[in-house]
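quick one
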Amino acid sequence: MTQSLAYIFQNQKLLVDEHLQLPRVERLARDLAVHQHDHVIARDLLEDEIVPDGYQLRPIRELIQVWSSTEFLQASRALQLLEWRRNHKFCSHCGHATEAHSTEYAMVCPACAYRQYPRVQPCIITIITKGDDEVLLAKSAQNKGNMYGLIAGFVEVGETLEEAVQREAFEEVGLKLKNIRYMSSQPWPFPSNLMIAFHAEYDSGEIELQLEEISEAQFFKFDQLPEIPFKGSIAHSMIMQIVGNNKL
Ligand SMILES: [Zn+2]
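structure w/ zinc ion:
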């Protein structure tokens, strides 16, 4: 019988062997196909199930630093599909128990036919530069370490991405921006965000912190950066792209 490459999760931790490789397993009825036509599955490891010998549960945030982006994207998709299935066991319209659609990623209500699909939450993240050699980095109020990141936040209902960039920058650090340009995007499964990256230039205003969100923010010279987010995160690659390009 063909074995499937398995993303087996328990509380956002993934089952891997000592070399951080994924197990291959025989497919169970409860498994979820990560893609429709290949042998890659996602499975929840239930609380009372034992971790097999030679395997361990590792946080997916740790694995992003050692994996390729393809591996991370697939793990991210597996995790989000499992969460979606777990959170949509009942119809949000009439409350009846749902059933998984046989060919689509949809949880279908047999009573009222309402369908619930996996959703992503759009979230903007912005790198703000001033002149040719300064970048704004901010420390999150929740972060007790010394890491400085970028301004980010969820897109609100009825808002364009560019408006979300302006609003978050104004709310969090009191700055107005200009020349907002799209850079790239990255799915981020904590729990199901799509990070949409922008570069913007400082336009006007003095830094004024929203203290519930940001404990410190300042413009840093490109050659005097503080500790930045880890490799594999979109913030890291945005900073490298802007600072790296300008150093050349
Ligand atoms: Zn229903």
